[in-house]
Specification:
Length: about 425
């Protein structure tokens, strides 16, 4: 006889967005099943591997409400300042730049850098310890959805009967595809190179965004580790062919190319952990829901990493959906009702589309050699630097200050990270 498991919500995908959503729902007393095709422990990397997340101020509130922030095993590094410059390799750089300080905005920090392994370890521990969560991983799910409810069947395992299924499976979501939800995609012809470097001089908790002709180069301040008292994450965008050549270089030659673009403000740099690469593109689902189905995170949208905002948008999805589900259950209503899912889409789609458009425009504006656009960029940087109200508006956006409609878990606005 097949075992039957009852849950309010079945979350397909145990990555950061799906895992955080499950933890938040369980913290409010909702029974949740989490299903992932991969086993969870191997997702943890015991050694630092060079990957990190930029977690903005509001997103920290999301992690706190999910019971995760205070249980991160490695310290998060605050971002107290952001410096934006229109740099150019091999030619005279613009002398204009922008500097945003969290103190100017009356904030503790714009955000925090969290090691990927740290968030994964906190998530795995919470998923295992929370009695309201049933974890099935590795497991191959088959989902059947009707107007009355959903059933998730596990090959060789139980059946999960739930009111709602959440697709948190990433950009190639099988659930989204099975639902026939159309998708708009476009390719930037760029590759994102991700790594971490130790450096000679302190970063003073300041993030740097260099806009170079091939794409942006971000240096993000991290908390020190035992082997690196001064440590930063690097997100480096290059044209695809150039990126392939760079990835083929030995570590020493790769580091020299990085240092040439980064400049000498940090002194000598050395590569730590692995190098990672990702093809860059944007996508957006035409709908965020179907019968008994909601899309969150990369299953619903993907953007250029020009400001490191992808994960934070996903956390905002989780925040908005969790609040709607918790309130519905408290009122004795159906958490998978079409009206609730339409409201979720209405809350999240405008924000996600606006961020997709903003990052797309930024990449197209800065990732080129046009003299006319270069002049326009420099004029824009000068204007923001001189006009205090405009500068404050940019800082509010960096911290993710939103209208009350966009507020996330725990009543605090979920926001995008600093660059």
């Amino acid at each position: 006889m097949v075992e039957r498991v009852e849950a309010a919500v079945g979350v397909i995908g145990a990555g950061p967005v799906g895992g955080v959503l499950a933890c938040r729902l369980a913290a409010a007393g909702l029974p949740v099943a989490v299903i992932d095709r991969a086993p969870l422990p191997p997702m943890e990397h015991p050694d630092f591997d060079g990957r990190a997340y930029a977690i903005a101020a509001g997103s920290r509130g999301v992690l706190q409400a999910a019971g995760l922030w205070d249980h991160l095993p490695y310290p998060a590094g605050p971002i107290h300042g952001i410096r934006v410059s229109d740099g150019r390799v091999g030619r005279r750089a613009s002398p204009l730049f922008l500097h945003f300080g969290a103190q100017e905005a009356g904030a503790e920090a714009f955000g925090w850098m969290v090691e990927a392994r740290s968030l994964r370890m906190a998530l795995n521990a919470r998923l295992a310890a929370e009695p309201a969560i049933t974890v099935l991983a590795p497991a191959v799910p088959t989902v059947a959805r009707t107007a009355e409810g959903a059933v998730v069947r596990i090959a060789g395992g139980p059946e999960i009967h739930c009111r709602l299924v959440v697709a948190a499976e990433g950009r190639n979501s099988p659930l989204r595809q099975a639902a026939g939800i159309p998708l708009t995609r476009f390719d930037y012809g760029q590759t994102g190179l991700v790594c971490a470097v130790g450096h000679e001089r302190p970063h003073h908790a300041v993030a740097l965004e260099h806009f170079l002709p091939a794409g942006p180069l971000a240096q993000l301040p991290m908390a020190p580790t035992a082997g690196a008292p001064h440590l930063s994450a690097i997100v480096w965008t290059e044209r695809r062919a150039t990126a392939a050549r760079l990835l083929a270089l030995p570590d020493a030659a790769f580091t020299r190319e990085l240092a040439r673009r980064l400049g000498d403000h940090l002194g000598a740099v050395r590569l730590l952990g692995r190098r990672w690469s990702y093809p860059l593109g944007a996508m957006h689902a035409h709908r965020y829901f179907d019968t008994r189905l909601a899309l969150v995170g990369d299953a619903a949208h993907g953007i250029h990493p020009i400001a490191g905002q992808g994960l934070n948008l996903g956390l905002r999805d989780a925040a908005a959906l969790a609040e709607l589900l918790i309130a519905a259950v408290a009122r004795g209503e159906d958490p998978g009702a079409p009206e609730l899912l339409r409201r979720y889409q209405a809350l999240r789609r405008p924000d996600n589309l606006a961020m997709l458009a903003a990052t797309d425009v930024l990449d197209r504006l800065f990732s080129n050699h046009s003299a006319a656009l270069r002049l326009a960029r420099d004029l824009g940087i000068a204007a923001v630097h001189r006009l205090a109200p405009l500068k404050r508006a940019f800082m509010r956006q960096a911290m993710g200050v939103q209208s009350p409609r966009a507020e996330g878990l725990g009543g605090s606005p979920a926001c995008p990270p600093a660059p």
